[in-house]
Write a structure and sequence with these properties.
The chain is mainly alpha-helical. Helix content is 66%, strand content 0%. Helix 2 runs antiparallel to helix 3 and helix 6 runs antiparallel to helix 8.
Length: 234
């Protein structure tokens, strides 16, 4: 009986650790102008005060609407934060890297493209003027490991897909002896994302203790994976 119980507990734990997609966090697609205003105001509030300091009343004031309108889209602040990070940060990153994988086979060039996508993710996208992507980036860096959002933030399918893709790129580079194989690909992928996020965040703050140049970020990425001599990240 003990083994059966232990197995059922393990199975239950595994079920709880399954990747979570956007449907867990959004009640209604923010495709209308009102929905976009609510998302934009939510991003502004989270970027200014953090998830724990944000208030629905302030979000709806910024959006020029009422509290019930917010709850038509989100069940609460936690769901709003998880949706913003998934939909407006990790999902666009995945689209970019997916495109690169369709046209690039070389692991070094593909790794370079993924690093470029990470660097560009800290900047605003002029194609979406109603949303400040640079502030979404700030939210991701500040809140991904916020205990109030765990474990869901780390189980976000878009996040797991991106890190998994980066892991596969590193593994291919290691197999071809282009990257150092001293550290497991998954560990390198996680470290790379965290390191570049921390560096790029310095350029995203209103006060800048230090400005990190793009070439410096690329060189740090190169050092992390132990890129073989003669191969360069462009």
């Amino acid at each position: 009986m003990r083994s059966v119980r232990a197995r059922s507990k393990n199975e239950e734990g595994s079920a709880k650790m399954q990747p979570l997609d956007r449907e867990h966090w959004i009640k209604r697609e923010p495709v209308t102008k009102l929905g976009q205003r609510i998302v934009s105001a939510t991003v502004e509030e989270f970027a200014a005060k953090g998830v724990l300091g944000a208030r629905v009343a302030e979000i709806t004031r910024r959006a020029g609407t009422t509290d019930p309108a917010f709850y038509r889209y989100f069940a609460g602040m936690k769901q709003a934060a998880l949706f913003v990070m998934s939909e407006y940060y990790w999902a666009p990153l995945n689209l970019r890297v997916k495109y690169y994988r369709q046209i690039i086979n070389d692991p070094v060039r593909l790794f370079s493209a993924a690093v470029t996508a990470l660097i560009q993710s800290a900047a605003d996208d002029p194609r979406r003027p109603w949303l400040a992507e640079s502030k979404v980036f700030r939210i991701v860096v500040a809140e991904m490991r916020n205990p109030a959002l765990l474990p869901e933030s780390m189980l976000n399918k878009e996040y797991l897909d991106f890190v998994g893709t980066l892991e596969e790129i590193v593994r291919r580079g290691q197999q071809k002896r282009l990257f150092s194989a001293k550290v497991r690909p998954r560990v390198l992928a996680e470290i790379l994302v965290g390191t570049l996020h921390s560096l790029l965040m310095m350029n995203n703050l209103s006060f800048q203790p230090m400005n990190v140049k793009t070439d410096e970020a690329r060189e740090i990425a190169r050092q992390l994976i132990g890129l073989a001599r003669g191969a360069r990240i462009k």
